[in-house]
Amino acid sequence: MSPIVLVPRRSGVGTSPPGSGPPEMPRRRRRRMWALALVAAMLAPLVVVAGAERSEALDRPYRSFDTRSGAKPGSGANVCRQIFAPQAGSFPSSQRVRSVSVNLTVVQQTGAGWVTAYRSGGSRPGVASLNYGASGPVSGNTVVEVNHRGEACFYVSRSAHLIVDVTAGHSTQSYVPVQPFRAGTTVSGARATPGRPYCVRVARNGVPSNARAVQVTVAARQPIDRGFLTVYDPSGARPNVSTVNYARNQTIGNGTAVPMSRDGRVCVYTSATSHIYVDVVGYFPVSTPHDVSSPSRLIDTRRIPGFVPRAGTKCHTVVGRNKLQADALSSYLTVTLLNQSSANAYLTVFRSGVSRPGTSSVNAPARETRANNVWSRVGPDGKICVYSSHAAHYLIDASVAINGTEFVPRPHSRCGEIVPGGSGFNEVYSCWTTPVIISIRTQNGFSPWEGVCVPARGTIRLDKSYTQASLQTYFLQGVPGGSRLAGPMPC
């Protein structure tokens, strides 16, 4: 059935002073419009896109920039770039994306140093987003706030080339950035030991005690032996996963999301005696639609019967395992590369059904083990794919899952974009998998639709006077009954 045509009420151009808004619609006409909307909802598919209200793992991660194409940033350089753009990845608009998940990779460094990611135009915080040694590629994950143009800055303390890959974007409904701060460190006292985890309060400096989880960067410094760190909620059992893998006397970190205890603490376990840093960059509010819990293992290729490490791509079924329900759409993953080759190696994680993106998810020097976090969508067949540059085993753990109704870039590849339609109309495509109640609002506050029931995965046709520039927000109302997800109100 073809899409229903609903021509919204007009703003009354020429009848109201500038900025005063449209005139009130007569009651009889309002009733008629509501009746048309309800009939249309029953007869044909409509749409609104509210995806930018959530944390969106990109359909295909993309490389934002790679300084190897130009001059190497010097020591103390600030590299400021637009890392998120409306046309990038699967996002319809950057208007509501306030933070972006990035993988940072440092190569060809002249010595040990660190990278600090921060919002362009903001003050640089005194924390590190990525620590790197004097040699070998080093990668790490963080979430950085962007300005209204999608720009962020990256401070490089020691001259090195920097590669930035974008994997997800977040609105404040799902993730709230804070001015990054150091929650704690052992450097001024005794090192943490395997028998004495380091616990620190993170619910402060803008992070509420009822937050679902916090986004932290944890780092090991001067460990006495090879080992790993695990960040966890101390109110539960420590998960059998790693957040950071380190070599002897190395300083290295990684970003991850972790739930807090009721008193606002997280703990860090170290398998070898080491100093520890814990920095906080943001939090997942209680309203987040995501299932955030302690990490659980999805894949360990050492335990897969018949698995032979080879260079190339291997796809794995992940839905239905641990926290990923049968309708899982994406997840925040910790990816660990066990590189036993004599060369530097990397992995790229991506959803099934698309071509491999030109990005890396984790990098490891020769004969080293490294972990990194990455957002990834799940393919329509419930699988994610892993490309390995060299023969290697790898582990994948999930710490955040997006299950159930969510913004999905199917069946249309241009979800949320207003595109030319036939017969003098523009069209907007649906990305929701269940019927929802929606509202549309223009930049001047005019609402052509309020509280319309929209069936799943359909199309709404707009009068051509409504363009991508004039339509400012697409948003949902209410929460589903009996669901942990803060999302659409079912019709």
Shape: globular
User: What percent of residues are in strands?
Assistant: 35-45%
Helical fraction: under 10%
Main sheet: which strands, in order across?
A: 1-8-3-6
Category from helices, strands and their pairing: mainly beta
Straight-line distance between termini: 20 Å
Low-pLDDT runs of 5+ residues are: 1-25, 30-55, 87-95, 404-418, 421-425, 439-450, 466-491
Major β-sheet annotation? 4 strands, antiparallel
Record field, number of beta strands: 30
Query: What is the mean pLDDT?
Result: 75
The total of helices stands at: 1
The radius of gyration computed from the alpha-carbon positions, rounded to a whole number of angstroms, is 24 Å
